[in-house]
Amino acid sequence: MSEKTEVDLTGAKQNTGVWLVKVPKYLAQQWAKASGKGEIGKLKIVKKQGKADVSFTLNEDLTSLSALGEKAASVRAPRDHPFTMHSVGGQTLAVFTETSAGNRLLPCSALGTTTGSDKISLEGMVVQRAECRPAVNENYMKLKKLQIEVSTKPQRLTEQMDRAVTNNFKPVANHVANVEYEKKKKAEGRMVRADRQQVMDMLFSAFEKHQYYNIKDLVEVTKQPVTYLKEILREIGVYNAKGTHKSTWELKPEYRHYQGGEEEIKSD
Question: Coiled-coil stretches, from where to where (predicted)?
């Protein structure tokens, strides 16, 4: 419940008693079709031997069952609905309504489920429980048959296509990304080992520009196989396994030609 929600307990002060009635789903759907001021039916209460005989008759205008599809045109909703009465059974039940921002009255099943409504009103305390059931007749049996047909109708249907669908993805022997990766891998495998001193010269030249390099950049600079390149780097360089320049190579102190305070790194 929001902090701004007001609760009107006038119904409690007036000691208003209400009935809690369970109705069939189709009947609730028919009621929802009625206009705000329209008549949905008539409630008849007759006293018989000290007991109340209660029945509800649905308005003729609300017997159309358009919600069940085209077949419902030949079937009408049952009109006569006798009540089966039950006691409250020691329970304390109440009926609330909530006034939304648009000033519409909505049923409120629990106070904790309101969503920013302006006002909640207590309509009354439940003094009688009942169940509204349709009279079993030919019209009711037709309705049940139609409901079963609708509920068992498959939600998905198999359709045979006259031609292949061309706007979907088609299977390929290999994807573009995989082809490019294999091509790059083969190109690296074809790298020819250059003279050892020539490779060293290329490395010295690179390290004059930057103090730190990762192995991928050095492969790109020298065009040499990774295994061969690492073999040479172990002779003239130091691998930083941790620290600020983790996973990079730099020259051993005796091979450095740059100033001691310079700390540049070449990476992607």
Answer: none
What phi, psi does 265 have (nearest 5°)? -130, 140
Q: With 50 as the cut, is the pLDDT of residue 110 above it?
A: no
CA–CA separation, 1 vs 110, rounded Å?
Answer: 10
> Is residue 43 pLDDT above 60, yes or no?
yes
CATH number (3.40.50.300, 3.30.70.20, 1.20.1250.20, 1.10.10.10) of 191-266 reads 1.10.10.10
Inter-axis angle of helices 215-222 and 226-236, to 10 degrees?
A: 110
Query: E strands of the chain, at which residues?
Result: 6-8, 17-22, 41-48, 51-58, 80-86, 94-99, 105-108, 119-132, 212-213, 237-240, 248-251, 265-266
Q: Work out the number of other CB atoms within 10 angstroms of the CB of residue 200.
A: 17
Q: Which long-range contacts (CB under 8 A, 24 or more apart) does 215-222 make?
A: 215/249, 216/268, 217/266, 217/267, 217/268, 218/249, 219/188, 222/194
Classify residue 53 as left (phi > 0), alpha (psi -120 to 50) or beta: beta
pLDDT at 117 over 60: no
Work out the widest C-alpha separation in the chain, in whole angstroms.
119
pLDDT surpassing 50 at residue 261: no
Tokens 């930057």 belong to 210
Q: Tokens standing for 204?
A: 């010295």
Q: Where do you find CATH 1.10.10.10 in the chain?
A: 191-266
Q: What is the pTM of this model?
A: 0.46
Report CA 245 to chain centroid distance, whole Å.
44
Digit-coded pLDDT (tens) for 239-259: 999 989 999 999 998 888 665
